[in-house]
Amino acid sequence: MRQMAKQIKSDFAVSVEDKLLFSLHLMQDNWSAERSSTGFWLGDFLHIQADVYGTSHVPLRLFVDSCVATQAPGKDSTPKYAITDFHGCLADGRIFDVASTFVTPRPQQETLQLTAEAFAGDTKNTICIACHLKVTAADEEPDLLNKACPFNKHREM
């Protein structure tokens, strides 16, 4: 019998100076649409898609600087589980036999997709995901502060 991992809340959008709109969504397994169900089983994969939309004509590349799962809204809520840290590296990369990954190639530079293995929280039925998203100009190369990596800084994408 598989253990239910909990329900996940992740739908949010933040506007920065009315010029950029960031979004984060749980997607269907094939990435074709937003997922309608927020329930997961342990061992399932969360398909997380981050996007940025802007009114600027400058092409942008999106990065997930950090991403945590918590039991209450807000990145400072405790306890928390790091999904990405160290300016864009998947934290699960430090754990043997975990298959979390960034999807490559990107569908577009303004979109970043990652899969993360579902996990159980402590006692509540809800897990919230809070991410710090950031952008660079699309023509800038990834660097130590702007990357999407499987926790190995020498394997940046």
Automatic annotation (TrEMBL):
The ZP domain, residue ranges: 1-156
Protein name listed in UniProt: Zona pellucida sperm-binding protein 3-like
InterPro entries, A to Z: ZP-C, ZP-C_dom, ZP_chr, ZP_dom
Domain of life: Eukaryota
Pfam families: Zona_pellucida
Keyword annotations: Disulfide bond, Glycoprotein
